[in-house]
Amino acid sequence: MKRDAIKEITRLLGERLEIQPTDVLITINEPTLDNWGVRGEQASELGLKYKKE
Fold first, then answer.
1. Which of 6, 8, 17, 19 has the fewest CB neighbours in a 10 Å radius?
2. Cα–Cα distance measured from residue 6 to residue 26, given in angstroms and rounded to the nearest whole number
């Protein structure tokens, strides 16, 4: 999923903004759910389930 996202972001930057792939740097930062707040609650306590494709 990450690989596909990186490729698609890079492709769209090139296609729409004419940014060369060599000029794109993407960093994926995945903090644990303990570090997220959702609907006034700590995300780790909500039992959120996201489907990864």
1. 17
2. 7
